[in-house]
Design goal:
Distance between the termini: 68 Å
Shape: elongated
Order of helices and strands: HEEEEEHHEEEEHE
Number of domains: 1
Oligomer: single chain
CATH topology: Protein Transport Mog1p, Chain A
Strand content: 35-45%
Helix content: 25-40%
Radius of gyration: 21 Å
Structural class: alpha+beta
CATH architecture: 3-Layer(aba) Sandwich
Length: about 180
């Protein structure tokens, strides 16, 4: 083998190794499954990046709250029983429920709800840009899911500057939502 062929072969192997390393670094965090049974009687599961940790950042009725403080990525899920809503003399459809949830985040904005299906359930999703309590501009992805017995609010958020880097994980979490039969 000539010296030129050896150099080309060496360069080829270096490029191959570099390609494998780049692919390994791009694979993103592995996912874990959160299996939740709420005090309202809802039971669901969803995938979340392994680097998420339980949190209690909001004084809400959330049955699931996780965060990655370093990546500034947050998620919470609130479940509400349709029977309980009806017991208060109310009768919501998904659009009405979505409107109420949107107003809890931003009282003044107008949002386009994207209809979608998540594991066979009707859902609506919108993105909201609003300042948090500290004045930092955040990008929220609100998804409301309707099942036979419950409405679910799945709220993911991150600072606006981190939205593009966290959006894929936000989508994976929301789209993995699945109500589990008891």
């Amino acid at each position: 083998m000539t010296k030129r062929k050896k150099i080309l072969l060496f360069i080829f192997f270096l490029l191959l190794i570099a390609g494998v390393v780049v692919l390994w670094l791009m694979r993103g965090p592995k996912m874990m499954t959160a299996d939740v049974t709420s005090s309202n009687g809802a039971r669901y599961e969803m995938l979340m990046p392994n680097d998420m940790e339980p949190s209690h950042i909001n004084d809400s009725a959330a049955s699931l709250e996780y965060q990655n403080a370093k990546r500034e990525l947050f998620i919470e899920v609130i479940d509400e029983s349709k029977a309980k809503i009806i017991s208060f003399g109310l009768d919501y459809d998904l659009e009405t429920y979505m409107k109420i949830c949107t107003r809890n985040i931003d009282k003044e904005g107008l949002y386009v709800n994207k209809p979608m299906t998540i594991n066979g359930n009707k859902a609506l999703q919108t993105e909201i840009k609003a300042a948090n309590s500290k004045g930092k501009l955040m990008e929220y992805k609100l998804t409301c899911v309707e099942t036979q017995k419950f409405f679910y609010q799945i709220l993911t958020w991150t600072p606006e500057v981190s939205f593009s880097s966290n959006n894929t994980d936000m989508e994976k979490m929301v789209n993995s939502f699945k109500e589990v039969e008891k």
